[in-house]
Amino acid sequence: MDRIDRASLVIEAPPTVVYDALLDRESLEAWLPPDGMRGRIERWDPQSGGGFRMVLSYLDATYSPGKTSAATDVVDVGFAELVPPERVVQRAVFESDDPWYAGTMTMTWDLAAAVNGTEVTVTATDVPPGIDQAVHETGIASSLANLASYVEGRG
Fold it and tell me: Which stretches make up the Activator of Hsp90 ATPase homologue 1/2-like C-terminal domain (predicted)?
């Protein structure tokens, strides 16, 4: 069976506000890096067929060696599908010499209107085998919590 990593959270903001935060450069730099990391976008093309390149740096690489270097993960992300304000599908490729991190991972961000805002569900498929599932799901949940903190009150 193919591995699926998933996390979801109800965010107290309307779907349009959440969707906009998925496609805004400054927003992504602020909320996408999970706890213990910071991010910087080097290339930005927010349209279907476009994408971005993000450098994620570990604040303390002692116990979290990176995929690209000891302290970084570099990922090229393409926007495969944009359906405002319901879905963003990303194709992510990590820059790494380690074959355990090779391949294209698909990240699907589904947004559904909920009574208190927007239920955001992130589903990752074709996850490289070098990425531990529990650690990945914790990272996705952390990014979702950061997204909630970032957008709540902006709607």
Answer: 13-152
pLDDT in tens, 58-79: 888 776 667 878 788 899 999 9
Rg (CA), the chain: 15
Between the alpha carbon of residue 152 and those of residues 5, 17, 30, 72, the distances in Å are: 25, 9, 14, 29
List, in sequence order, every beta strand (DSSP E) within 1-151.
Answer: 4-11, 37-45, 51-58, 72-83, 87-94, 104-114, 117-125
Question: pLDDT digit string (tens) for 40-59?
Answer: 999 999 999 999 999 999 88
Q: How far is CA 88 from the centre of its chain?
A: 10
> What domains are defined for the chain?
4-35+79-151 (3.30.530.20)
